[in-house]
Amino acid sequence: MVEAPTSTISPDQRRDCVGARAGKAFVETNANPLMLIGLTDCSATLATAPPHRLIRCDGWAAIALEIAVPTDPDDAQILTWAAAQNEVLAAYIARHDVLPVAIGAAFSDREAMNQHITVNQSAFAREAAGILGCVEYALTLDPKPLSNTETVFASGQNFLRSAKHRKQSLSHERAQFMRDVVAQTRCYALKVIPERGNASRLARVCALIPRASQDAFLAAMLGFAPRSHALGLDCRLIGPSPAYSFVRGVPQEDG
Fold first, then answer.
1. Which of 122-136, 156-170, 185-199, 238-252 is least confident?
2. Rounded to whole angstroms, how far apart are CA atoms 175 and 59?
3. Strand 203-210 to strand 60-66: parallel, antiparallel, or no bridges (unpaired)?
4. Largest CA distance in the chain
């Protein structure tokens, strides 16, 4: 039932980024604009991750990327930035709290970025306090085809009646399963966001889990595996990730 990759991101999370040489500090050339993608503890050291910079400023360690800003970035470019941001922040989340920053602007140099952080210090601190000591997990529930029954029916009418009953029963059981998963998640999470599904997905649940509760939470989710299999549900638990779903973001202006 449960898979736990380091982290993942989907287009609907709308996070950006990209960078430079993994695991090494950058020379201060200021050749390219900086894109602020996250803030972490000022004691953090540069992680071995995709290209990025770690810049100390005003009580934070700012995680930023050097980028070549296109005049009019298309969706593909934005998704590339988003995937890169997620990969970089995932390298820090295992050791430090990370405040993901929604991308809205590029800064001409570190001084401009520092000024933005200073001006918005109280807003960043407020956001960080809400996710202190926590990571995000996302549970997705996708229905998969059930094996065909070998029951022999006396007539097509009986077959249709049985199929309709089975579909209704399965829908009810899956809905109850979803409620049970959310209820169990609430036992360990500070916050839970259940998202309604669509034609291909039954549901998605985002949870803000304290680091101290991670092991118990994972064990509880694994306990649902036999039931999810019986109901024909493909369940994936994704995390730990930065708390993308639980921060509102601070507006950014070009600097």
1. 156-170
2. 46
3. unpaired
4. 80
Beta-sheet pairing, 233-241 with 134-143: antiparallel
The DSSP-derived string for 135-198 is: EEEEEEEEE-PPPPP-PPPSSHHHHHHHHHHHHHHHHHHHHHHHHHHHHHHHTT-SEEEEEE--
At 60 the three-state DSSP class reads strand
- Of residues 212 and 103, which shows the higher confidence score? 212
Distance CA 8, CA 2 (A): 14
- Write out the H or E segment, with its range, that includes residue 88: helix 75-93
Taking alpha carbons only, the member of 5, 217, 221, 185 closest to residue 94 is 5
Q: Is the dihedral of CA 108, 110, 111, 112 positive or negative?
A: positive
Catalogue the E-assigned strands of 49-146: 53-57, 60-66, 98-100, 134-143
**Residues 205, 246, 63, 9: what is their CA dihedral angle, to the nearest 10 degrees?**
20
Under a CB-based contact definition with an 8 Å cutoff, are residues 32 and 66 in contact?
yes
